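INFO  loader      accepted 1 record
INFO  loader      residues=435
INFO  predictor   begin
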Amino acid sequence: MIVQSTQNNTVSFKQSSVFNTMANIESNILLNKGITDIGGFVIPQAIMSNNKDESVERVFKSLLYFIFTFISPFLLLPFINKYALKSNKILENLSGKEKKIIEVPKKYLTQGTDKMLEGIKKTAHNIFGDENKFNPIIEKFPDKEELRKKLINAHTEILFTDFLTTNLMVASIPWLGNALTKYRTKRSGYSGTYKMADEEFTRKAAEKHNKTKNLRQAATLGLAILPALTIPFALRKGMLNGSSGNNKILKWFNKNASEFDYKNSIYMSRLTALIMWLTSDYFPYQLACRDKYEYRDTVIRGTSIGLVFWGGDLFLKNTFSKFSDKVFKTNLMNKTEKRPYRLSELKNAENIEELKQLPKAILNRTRNAGVGLYALNLAIIMGTLGFGLPAGLNKLLRTKVTEDKKKINNSLLTYDRLFDLHRNFSGFRLLKHNE
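INFO  predictor   done
INFO  writer      dumping tokens
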């Protein structure tokens, strides 16, 4: 609700609780994904499961995913951050607010000491309203390059530890879900087929995959630890001297170091989350499949969900924002950068030149439209991926299982006929011999 206007038609406003909540969710990649997963995928797909056992398994896996990717960073990252600061001897006393120096964006650490000092002061001002808050740390290091290297090392340790712990936990989820179902039901194979076929059918369907189970578990482990062994150290080298070398990879990491920043030093960036999703979720879920039916379902389901969350949602937001600006005369599109404004930017409209010049009514309408489009995105995801996709996959599964059962029955029938012919022919030969 707008409560006050300033000169030059600028505005400041008191945010509604709904708008604040939506803005915080959208700007937090992990929380945003968690809400989208639960509202758009988990609950609808649990409802659309083929049977109770599949439903229990999906809810269990989703619950673990939410705990490992949202709750565990909230609990673990503060300790990891403190350890990185102490191990690099940046801070000894970790009880004060100076530990917030870890929130200095990485882009300020890639271009020398002057840029680093500028970033430290800006970060102090943004967090505390006092640009000198981190001065005791700055004064502790007469050689500012030493401070820059130590901060880069701290960021490297944090990224390494987070990659390693979170990836290992998430990669274990499909295997733990499978183990739970095995323990509960004492059956093999994909839980989605349990009401469509008997135990013998599902056991035979899983035989081929069981032979490579150990190999697939080893591959899951390898994928899970791969990012921790590569990304942090490439980023470190890129931040230290990537801009001056000839290595294109290190130059890329130098230029895009900010893509690996953590929000509030806890919640990972979109790029970090994407890397983790590919190596601990998307491919490990395929490796953990128990038979060909689950593999087909997992590839289609995972790819569809991935395309929507890692790009499709942005495409929808871009499309809807342009439509809203044209039809409802809102100002959701950033004309300079040609992208939709984030809700967090609309929240702080008084700090953005293009937005603070808007009349109060248009700004208010824009903010409301932004919240509405966020809800619309979730509704579309729920309708298509939460209900539509599972309905199609369930129908495909029933068709394939029915076809395979029919093939087995036909094979048995053919075998019985051949056996009868052989038996009759043998009896006929024995009769002729006796004659």
